Amino acid sequence: MAVLHAVAEEPCSLSTLCERTGLPRATAHRLAVGLEVHRLLARDTKGQWVPGAALAELAATAGDTLIDAASFVLPRLREITGESVQIYRREGIERVCVAAMEPPTGLRDTVLVGARLPMTAGSGAKVLLAWADITTQRAVLPEAQFTERVLIEVRRRGWAQSIAERESGVASVAAPIRDATGTVIAAISVSGPIDRMGRKPGARWAADLLAAADAIQKRL
């Protein structure tokens, strides 16, 4: 792994590989040649080691454990609420929808998988920002439709709600999804028309969202 990480930084000669890994010359050479045989490393036109094609092939078969876990939970949450359900990950100062399901009929809040939304509005944004680093919070809060005090309240009660923040006529509730270490890695959300969700959607759906988030965490 040390050799792979060293080569991933930039192409490596044997001398550079020894410097980066701290390995003896003979050991570094033996490991690099072995990885090259299995196509995990290759050589460029200058004879330096570079990442091999087999790394990309392996990566292409890797599943997304969050989405896999969510696929068992989102259908039931949609059935319970009768509304659209989504999962968001934070990327910088944006949030990205990585999974979504909609009710089969009726007016719905459609968020396409892959959609990039701002972190300045919406319950999912509040959840992701509440557990984000201070630098990210300071970058987003000046433009946000909520305050730092709201984020403190989100962390205290464990969920967030929004009424017509991201889009007029839409309400939503969101809760954090944690990994095995307890780190918040995503937000799970239910959204729909205010006429159905009500002006206090958290009172109605927060408990179900927290249960769904817990179910995903257990599967992770």
Distance between the amino and carboxyl termini:
24 Å
How does CATH name the architecture of the largest domain?
2-Layer Sandwich
Give unreliable regions as ranges. Answer: none
How many extended strands?
Answer: 8
Please state the structural category: alpha+beta
The largest β sheet comes out as: 6 strands, antiparallel
Q: Determine the mean pLDDT.
A: 91
**Which of globular, elongated, flat, extended, rod-shaped describes the shape?**
elongated
Q: What's the CATH topology name of the largest domain? A: Beta-Lactamase
β content, as a range?
A: 15-25%
In total, how many domains does the architecture comprise?
Answer: 2
**Strand order, sheet with most strands:** 5-4-3-8-7-6
N-to-C SSE series? HHHEEHHEEEHHHEEEHH
- Broad CATH class of the largest domain: Alpha Beta
Radius of gyration: 23 Å
Give the fraction of residues assigned to helices: 40-55%
Keywords: DNA-binding, Transcription, Transcription regulation
Domain HTH iclR-type: 1-53
GO molecular function, one term: DNA binding
GO biological process, one term: negative regulation of DNA-templated transcription
